[in-house]
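Make up an example, fold above all:
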Amino acid sequence: MSKEVLIFGAGNIGRSFITPIFLDAGYTVYLADINTKLITSLKKAGQYNIRICSNEEETIRIVQGFHPVALSNKEALFPLLMRIPLMVTSVGLAGLEAVSKLIAETLSGRINNEKEYIPLDIILAENLRNASSFCHGKILESLSGSFPVESHLGLVETSIGKMVPLRTEQDIIQDSLGMKAEPYNTLILDKDGFIGPIPQSPCIQLVSPIKPWVDRKLFIHNLGHAAAAYLGRQYFPNETYLAPLMKDKDFVEEIRNVMTEGANILLSEYPEVFTIKDLTDHIDDLLTRFSNTSLGDTVQRVGRDLSRKLSGNDRIVGAMAEAVQRNLPIKNICRVYLAALSFEQVNQDSEDYKIFTIYKEEGLEAVYTDKSCVGDFSPAVYKKILDELKRIEAH
């Protein structure tokens, strides 16, 4: 079986993280994207640079040897879909739905010379809880015939901790294909999700089960990052960048308190996986990474997309719901939620500004009911959260 991988998504994570890992592991890498202009540029250049930024130094990684493919180029894409045993998605929720349908269209045709189906593993490098269930459902919706899904299709969830800031206009002018990223380079994969050979790399950490690690990312990393953005905008409204906020010791302790409430959920839910020291060390590491000045990450990038980040299953309300079910405190996370409601005050055409407007004109309950009271938890849980939000808002 060939050591090939097809990566869907030539964006931040796909190019700065996933592609280098598999190139270094000896794979032939095909990099597919819907952006034909980007694919054309990558083909012409044959390489791109990653500026690996830390507070101590900056190094350049030149990425070469990959094969760009436009998703619109069916002639080039179809043979890859028919034979490659390992694929990776890094395309976001909307893109994952489209890619799942595309893969489903070719699954029944993946037959070798012995008239046997060619097994396929798909690594879901998405910032999405329960990504495998979502992808499985979309594939089944589109799949016709009698393809043996359960035995010949592996869906591998991940925990993606890599921080990659958006490129500025100046960055693009200086290097149109270049990227910036932090040194962190660990890809956490669900060991149990594979049906074929598991890729080997010093950068790959295999875990079983994966759910505790996905929740760790959501309820500590994502939650802490959101807290830094929303409380940072509240306390330091004129500061563009995230890192300078982390020089304020009182502010850092406030973010730590939020992340600790998230850690308490994990300790309650997964006592056999995590210890207090594990999670405390993880929080310390993240706070240091948030303070990476040379990364140039902005408060706006970290905090944007409020509709998703305030939804009922995501980092803030999802954490509060899990905590409420376990009678754990949520005071600090509540303060993050309330700060988020006033986050976007500049771009009046954005969806985030609509949330700000609803909050100012109609109040907390209107936003909460519309954006946050829909998810996997009972109405009673969501009501307890709303009651606590109202209590803290009143003070």
